[in-house]
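Dear support,

We are seeing what looks like truncated structure output for some complexes. This example has two components. We would appreciate it if you could run it in full and send us the complete token output so we can diff it against ours.
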Amino acid sequence: GQQLNQSPQSMFIQEGEDVSMNCTSSSIFNTWLWYKQDPGEGPVLLIALYKAGELTSNGRLTAQFGITRKDSFLNISASIPSDVGIYFCAGQLGAGGTSYGKLTFGQGTILTVHP
Amino acid sequence: GAVVSQHPSWVICKSGTSVKIECRSLDFQATTMFWYRQFPKQSLMLMATSNEGSKATYEQGVEKDKFLINHASLTLSTLTVTSAHPEDSSFYICSAPGSTNEQFFGPGTRLTVL
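Here is the complete output from our reference environment:
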């Protein structure tokens, strides 16, 4: 089945540093989504990408949808302690077919920010 | 963004009992909802698709008789773990699609089976 490879698995950074993580897939997705999950809570949507090559920002977050629709990256600038958590990429197929709306998740990137 | 709630947030039960988890879309309607399971330090794995007014569709390897799903209305889906065993202990999370089909997740339900 489809798999998303997310890297790095974990990151330990100092407050104020920039962070970059990425996901690659063997299959094409119509939509790429980036989520953040805090311990004991559900994932919270950070950025949604709908078009190949799309570059989208949300505050200190920037994400891009690869031109081949098989990869995406997420950048966090000027990290702060509350950025700590697990970040997941997720791919979603388009309309039509039984897989519509289903998400395939990457393995997650655990981010630790030292004050 | 859209708000999805889950109840209960955590539950502890004895082995052999059944547990029902509710997922509600609070400010929007959802004809489809999704149920995921997450084990510690792992990613989310899709269990099934809940369809309002029709049967749920299950992912390969998920027992439909063990994980009963009912999508009774456009704002409510329930997951019942029947005859729960310790290996069913996990974090169960539901999601519902927003206006552009991005998925919004509930806060999750921590199930512990003794």
